[in-house]
Amino acid sequence: MSEKKKFTIEYEIKSSPRILYTFLSEPNGLSQWFADDVNFRDQSYTFTWDDGEQQKAKLVTAKENKLVRFKWVDDEPQCYFEMEILQDELTNDVALGITDFATEDAIGERKLIWDNQIQYLISVLGA
């Protein structure tokens, strides 16, 4: 099994950090773009997709209106995925930085998945 590598991508989002944060941190917000159904119980999130796939993740870091970091329960110890709200101090432009892990041969595919998910998030936000 090849080792997973960290990668980051950034997307411009026309939204306030406060509104964007609710879509990144709350089950109701996440279920509108990230997964088809999201439940929170016993300090863990259960993400369910239409194809029946389910994954559990723990929220390991949350900084209000700034950042959320999740760790898949069944993933390697050093791996996580993080969504960070970045705001330019001069222009107030908002971007969403994604940090994730994938094997070298899967990074391209994982980036495409994020591209699609973030485009969907942007349409849900009406941004």
From TrEMBL:
Pfam families: START_2. Residues 1-127 form the START-like domain. Gene3D superfamilies: 3.30.530.20. InterPro entries: START-like_dom_sf (IPR023393), START_2 (IPR045736). This is START-like domain-containing protein.
